[in-house]
Amino acid sequence: MSTKSEDQPIICGAKTRSGALCQNPPELGRRRCRIHGGAKGSGAPQGNKNAWKHGFYSAEAIARRRDARRLVKESRELMSMMNQISGISA
Fold first, then answer.
1. CB neighbours (10 Å) of residue 22?
2. Where are the chain's structural domains?
3. Radius of gyration of the chain (CA)
4. Cα separation of 73 and 90, whole Å?
5. Are 10 and 23 within 8 A, CB to CB?
6. Helices (H), strands (E): how many in the chain?
7. Residue 15: what are its φ and ψ, rounded to 5°?
8. Closest among 28, 34, 38 to 8, alpha carbons compared
């Protein structure tokens, strides 16, 4: 690939569907043309949003399940104490 300087190529050089190299000039400061990913805002979003599937193991979901288990445990303990008290007073 011939270049103007070592940093900025003259052509995009991406492989097209026909198998030839793209002859478009790259975007300023990029190595590819706007069609092949040189445009501003191209690429994957920040934060790996593409990998998000269901959120079952997210910190928020884990904390929510932990709180729910704690509430169930406390409720069972409270019901047990109430049953003991009602058994004593009966």
1. 16
2. 1-39, 55-90
3. 31
4. 26
5. no
6. 1, 0
7. -80, 125
8. 28
